[in-house]
């Protein structure tokens, strides 16, 4: 990575442009993917489009605000933020506040809106890890000071997520904590034993829930699945296959016509593949890859260790979610029910992702030329 | 700068960044594999794949009784299908399959010769048969699981529950009424072809995102069972066409049991005549006869035109209204209002009615819910018919006063009696108590609903006191009495209209009894209707025992404490220990009774001469004697003669004759 070009600029324009392009594209794809379903179930084909547009606007406001909020403030408020996120995670169990969708308590009802506390929890954990790791500094190599407190905090959040149940987000958080500990200077032997220790937990969580087992089975062998739980993934494959090199054209997807469940959320990338083909897929991957690389650059040129960790943490969190979602729809990972940040329909994810981008912009503006 | 000092952090960050770049590379590679290399194969499968979409019946919620016993459940059943295009030797396969399944091989052969890609061979078969087919491993023939409906209680509450068709949609009863709620997500089998052109199925939930709901009924499975048993016995004993029995909780309007005889088994509903499927408690009307006098009484007392002790002249059994003459079975002179109801005098009822006035009586009947639907959550409820004051001439009016010329449902009778039991407040009857989601959370709890106050609590109390006397020695319904509890009720015996002649039949009756218990704090209202009993048609003889059977058992089941303590038993009660089984009325024993009992205890036949037919029947049943009755009027001859040793008597023949004028 060369010199940080972003130093001192008012806005890191390459990052802003990439994000804005994806947001615009998101509106097109959400509309294309959801209009039939929205018209059929809700009688308004613009339903998801209108809401997604509102989420984008709100997210952009948050992003521009965050650009001017010094990142130090998050560090000062780290414990209130952490406590708030845990309270929100617990609040889904309060009757009347929690909203059950498809058997999982993942949403909080706030007036006409439903928010996902898990999204905020990710941000809170990123702030905590950055603050704490920067404070520990060279003590990160020690087990009790460097590893243990982070494991406790992250473990508690993951436990709350698994209870919702939201195993997917919990696993992503686990992988992300692993990455953060790695760059923070945690000893490799600790990290390896962490992986070994996590395996039985994941195994238990999987065999304890019937649908998770089914998802594994669908992942391992979607084609010969006797009970047909491979349905989603097969149709995702069909979407990509039908798209070919150049795609069938925007709006012309067949798989979104009730073959693919939730084409505007979890499987929006499949619709991109079908309507815009391999070219479109490459474009989206390139945009996300650029955002990740840019985020890493900004982190490397940050003015202090805390900013570096925070910027890098938020970048990798975004990148991990992107990779996992794409891996799922392409049959590389088991189905998890995770959305594609910036592209999929969804308010909580949109606002928190753009908040993260805003934080990155602030870090970029404070950077010292390296 | 710290970063410079800690170059290794920079190094690690770059390692992670490279990992991410590799990840994105993998994504692109995988997309390349699908979108460029395997493009044609996947596209062909996506386009030509759907050779057939087979809709499977949707899953269905469970119906529970009030304490969580399953009344209707959804189960996995196996169905046999075939891919006709895959089958080469169609004749041989159709013969083999037809033999195993016991179906016509020619019909199956016809199906297999069609050029369709998918046909059902036989749906919802025995698991054993499915195994047999599976073992044959025939190419192009397969087994698929689908959802079937099963009623574990078989005939239990069949008319109330109803049943579903082969597509799992409700056709009758609650299954039809609550079809939308009960129906869960449907499944579809999507037939596709793999790369080698072999068909395979993908099973998926259909796009309609329907949530499954379970119903909890107000029905108590055990009381329902008792009601059906008692009704079956009563119908069989009286060789009647059928019967109905409703049990409800007067304070809430909850239906505890709803029995209809003859019964049918909803698991194999198509083998029964269509008429058996109807929930006749709500769908069939009949003329109530004397039971209506309870409501006439309530109206008259509420209006204050008469008091229980007001005396009315009963015309010595003959009363002329316009060109008709109304008869009473017994000749009565002057009776109190109370006795008119207790003895069920028709002429007396007319006199009460005349005092009250038809207009007001009509309003009370409508107030009690007659002539309109009760609003129960069941399909096909009839509203019955009450002649409006404008349409009713003086004969119609007189008939209506004693319960002929108007029609009601058994449920209306029970609900109206429930109003008297509930201190004058009419409750809306209902059978579904709770709607639950698949995880057992209650989505909707149905609360008792007050319709209106019809009479004051004071009037209800007075009416109850009189109705208690109906179920006494003097009254028409002593067989409804339950040892230890005070019972209030009213009997009814109505002539049916002969369909051919359009006149009241002399042989076809509807016998009924509707009452509640315990009278002072009612827990149960039970209405029993017996349709066309042969032989003795009296409601007090045919229908009242069902009340006793069901009531006695249900009070015990509900842990209702007896209100009449054993110490309060009348004199001579010890004499009755032998007859406890046939004599639940021992606590109300009268002097006359103990005299009779003494005779029987000493082993001699009592003297029935001079008694009315009803009196004879009640006493004979109480004493466990079989009787054969001839003629009408009052008993004047009996064989064997009084005083004969009772052990040798198989039955007593009693001849009646009308009193000399």
Structure in words:
The complex is a heterodimer of chains A (370) and B (661). Chain A has 13 helices and 3 strands, in the order ααααβββααααααααα. Chain A is mainly α and 370 residues long. In chain A, a hairpin with a 2-residue loop joins β1 (98-101) and β2 (104-110). Chain A is globular, with a radius of gyration of 20 Å. Chain B is of the alpha+beta class and 661 residues long. Chain B has 4 domains: 3-48; 52-217, Penicillin-binding protein 2a (Domain 2) (Alpha-Beta Complex); 221-267 and 279-557, Beta-lactamase; 582-657, Trypsin Inhibitor V, Chain A, CATH 3.30.10.20. Helix content of chain B is 34%, strand content 23%. In chain B, the strands form 7 sheets. In chain B, strands 2, 3, 4, 5, 8, 16 and 17 form a 7-stranded mixed beta sheet that branches. Chain B has a 5-stranded antiparallel beta sheet with strand order 10-9-21-20-19, sandwiched between helices. In chain B, α4 (90-101) crosses α5, α12 runs parallel beside α14 and α13 (337-343) packs across α18 (457-470). Residues 566-599 of chain B have low confidence and may be disordered. Classes of the chains: A mainly alpha (370), B alpha+beta (661). Chains A and B meet through α7, α10, α11 and α12 of A and α2, α3 and β7 of B.
Number of domains of chain B: 4
Determine Rg of chain B (CA atoms, Å).
34 Å
What is the percentage of strand-forming residues of chain B? 15-25%
The number of distinct helices of chain A, counting runs of at least 4 residues, comes to 13
Number of contiguous helices of chain B:
22
Q: Measure the end-to-end span of chain A.
A: 11 Å
Which residues of chain B sit in consecutive blocks of at least 5 with pLDDT less than 50? 566-599
What name does the CATH topology of the largest domain in chain B carry?
Beta-lactamase
Oligomeric state, counting identical vs distinct chains: heterodimer
Most residues in contact: chain pair:
A-B, 54 and 44 residues
């Amino acid at each position: 990575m060369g010199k940080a070009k972003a130093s001192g600029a008012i806005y890191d324009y390459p990052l802003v442009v990439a994000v804005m392009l994806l947001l615009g594209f998101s509106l097109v794809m959400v509309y294309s993917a959801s209009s039939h379903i929205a018209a059929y179930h809700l009688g308004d084909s613009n339903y998801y489009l209108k809401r997604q547009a509102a989420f984008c606007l709100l997210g952009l406001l948050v992003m521009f605000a965050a650009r001017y909020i010094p990142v130090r403030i998050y560090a000062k408020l780290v414990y209130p933020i952490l406590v708030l996120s845990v309270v929100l995670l617990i609040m889904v169990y309060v009757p009347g506040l929690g909203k059950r969708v498809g058997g999982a308590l993942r949403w909080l009802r706030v007036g006409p809106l439903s928010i996902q506390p898990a999204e905020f929890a990710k941000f809170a954990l990123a702030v905590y890890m950055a603050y704490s790791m920067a404070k520990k500094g060279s003590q990160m190599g020690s087990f009790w000071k460097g590893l243990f407190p982070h494991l406790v905090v992250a473990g508690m959040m993951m436990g709350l997520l698994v209870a919702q149940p939201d195993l997917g987000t919990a696993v992503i958080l686990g992988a992300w904590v692993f990455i953060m500990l790695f760059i923070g200077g945690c000893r490799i032997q600790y990290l390896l034993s962490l992986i070994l220790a996590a395996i039985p937990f994941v195994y238990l969580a999987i065999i304890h829930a019937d649908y998770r087992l089914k998802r594994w089975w669908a992942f391992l062998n979607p084609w010969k699945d006797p009970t047909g739980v491979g349905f989603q993934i097969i149709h995702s494959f069909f979407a990509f296959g039908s798209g070919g090199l150049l795609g069938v054209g925007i709006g012309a997807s067949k798989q979104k016509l009730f073959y693919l469940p939730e084409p505007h959320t979890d499987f929006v990338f499949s619709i991109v593949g079908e309507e815009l083909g391999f070219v479109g897929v490459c474009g989206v991957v390139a945009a996300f890859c650029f955002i990740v690389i840019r985020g890493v650059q900004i982190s490397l040129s940050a003015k202090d260790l805390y900013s570096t960790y925070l910027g890098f943490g938020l970048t990798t969190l975004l990148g991990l979610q992107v990779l996992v979602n794409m891996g799922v729809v392409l049959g590389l990972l088991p189905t998890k029910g995770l959305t594609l940040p910036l592209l999929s329909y969804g308010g909580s994810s949109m606002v928190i992702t753009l908040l993260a981008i805003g934080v990155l912009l602030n870090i970029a503006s404070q950077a010292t030329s390296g | 700068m710290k970063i410079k000092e800690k170059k290794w952090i920079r190094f690690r960050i770059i390692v992670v960044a490279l990992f991410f770049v590799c990840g994105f590379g993998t994504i692109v590679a995988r997309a390349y594999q699908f979108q460029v290399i395997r493009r044609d194969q996947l596209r062909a499968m996506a386009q030509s794949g759907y050779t057939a979409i087979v809709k499977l019946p949707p899953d269905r919620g469970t119906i529970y009784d009030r304490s969580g016993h399953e009344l209707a459940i959804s189960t996995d059943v196996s169905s046999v299908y075939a891919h006709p295009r895959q089958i080469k030797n169609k004749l041989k396969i159709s013969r083999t399959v037809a033999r195993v399944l016991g179906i016509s091989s020619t019909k199956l052969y016809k199906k297999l010769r069609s050029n369709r890609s998918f046909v059902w061979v036989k749906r919802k078969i025995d698991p054993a048969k499915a195994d047999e087919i599976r073992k044959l491993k025939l190419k192009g023939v397969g087994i698929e699981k689908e959802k079937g409906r099963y009623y574990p209680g078989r005939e239990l509450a069949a008319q109330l529950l109803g049943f579903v068709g082969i597509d799992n949609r409700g056709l009758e009863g609650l299954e039809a009424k609550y079809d939308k709620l009960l129906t869960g997500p449907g499944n579809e089998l999507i037939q596709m072809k793999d790369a080698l052109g072999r068909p395979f199925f993908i099973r998926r939930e259909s796009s309609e995102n329907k949530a499954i709901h379970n119903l909890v009924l107000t029905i108590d499975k055990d009381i329902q069972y008792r009601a059906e048993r008692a009704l079956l016995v009563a119908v069989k004993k009286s060789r009647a066409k059928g019967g109905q029995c409703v049990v409800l909780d007067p304070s809430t309007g909850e239906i505890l049991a709803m029995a209809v005889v003859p019964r049918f088994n909803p698991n194999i509903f198509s083998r029964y005549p269509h008429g058996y499927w109807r929930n006749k408690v709500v769908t069939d009307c009949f003329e109530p006869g004397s039971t209506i006098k309870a409501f006439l009484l309530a109206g008259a007392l509420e209006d204050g035109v008469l008091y229980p002790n007001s005396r009315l002249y009963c015309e010595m059994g003959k009363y002329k209204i316009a060109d008709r003459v109304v008869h009473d079975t017994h000749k009565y002179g002057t009776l109190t209002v109370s006795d008119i109801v207790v003895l069920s005098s028709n002429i007396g009822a007319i006199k009460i009615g005349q005092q009250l006035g038809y207009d007001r009586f009509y309003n009370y009947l409508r107030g009690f819910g007659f002539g309109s639907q009760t609003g129960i959550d069941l399909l096909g409820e009839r509203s019955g018919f009450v002649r409006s004051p404008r349409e009713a001439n003086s004969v119609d009016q007189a008939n209506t006063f004693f319960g002929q010329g108007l029609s009601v449902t058994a449920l209306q009778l029970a609900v109206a009696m429930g109003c008297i039991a509930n201190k004058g407040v009419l409750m809306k009857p209902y059978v579904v108590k709770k709607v639950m989601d698949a995880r057992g959370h209650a989505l909707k709890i149905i609360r008792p609903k007050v319709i209106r106050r019809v009479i004051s609590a004071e009037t209800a109390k007075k009416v109850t006191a009189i109705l208690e006397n109906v179920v006494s020695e003097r009254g028409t319904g002593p067989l409804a009495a339950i040892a230890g509890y005070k019972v209030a009720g009213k009997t009814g015996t109505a002539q049916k209209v002969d369909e051919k002649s359009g006149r009241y039949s002399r042989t076809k009756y509807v016998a009924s009894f509707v009452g509640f218990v315990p009278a002072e704090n009612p827990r149960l209202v039970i209405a029993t209707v017996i349709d066309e009993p042969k032989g003795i048609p009296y409601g007090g003889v045919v229908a009242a025992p069902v009340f006793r059977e069901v009531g006695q058992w249900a009070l015990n089941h509900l842990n209702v404490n007896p209100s009449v303590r054993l110490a309060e038993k009348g004199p001579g009660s010890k004499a009755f220990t032998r007859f406890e089984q046939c004599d639940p009325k021992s606590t109300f024993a009268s002097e006359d009774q103990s005299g009779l009992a003494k005779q029987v205890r000493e082993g001699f036949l009592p003297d029935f001469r001079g008694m009315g037919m009803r009196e004879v029947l009640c006493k004979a049943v109480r004493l466990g004697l079989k009787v054969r009755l001839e003629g009408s009027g009052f008993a004047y001859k009996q064989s064997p003669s009084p005083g004969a040793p009772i052990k040798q008597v198989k039955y007593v023949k009693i001849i009646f004759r009308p009193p000399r004028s």
